[in-house]
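anyone seen this seq b4? input:
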Amino acid sequence: MEKGEVQCRGLTAAPFFGREPFISWRKRNFVNVLLYGGLKRDPRIPDTPTIYEIFDKENTPEESRRVADVILRGGDFGRPWVMPPATPPEVVKTMRAAYAKAMADSALLDEAKKTKLDVEYVPGEELQKLAEKMMSQPPAVVQRVKTLLGKK
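predicted toks r here
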C-alpha cells in the first residue's frame, strides 16, 4: 500500500493459500489480509474479519449488503456442473447423488490434497438456492451492481 500497489481481490481464497507468490508472501509476513469476503471466517486467517462482520458493526443498509452479495457470492459457486433447464428432475437427482459420492471418496480427496487443490463439497440444492437468491434482486441492486462493474 505504501507504494500505491494493492493485491486486492480474488473470488476465492484458494489461490492465496495454494500457489506462489502468495505462499512466500505469507511465510515472510509480507501481506496482511484486511478483509475476507466469505460468509464465515476462514480458519486459515482466523483474525481476519468478514465483510459481513464489518457490515454489522457499521450498520450497513440492506441494499448495500445485497450489492456486495451479488458481487462476492460468485466465488461460492466454485466450478459447478450445470445442466440444461429442461433436464428431467430424476436425472438432476442422480447426478447430484453421484457427485456427492465422488466428493466423499477418500482417494479422490487425498489426491486433491497432494496437488494442493482446495476441495469443498457444496450440495447442488444449496447452489440452486444461492443462484435463485442472486437472480431475484430488486432493480436498485441490479443497477448499482451494473454501475460498479462499469455497465450502463
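The chain has one domain: 14-148. The radius of gyration is 18 Å. kinda curious what u guys think
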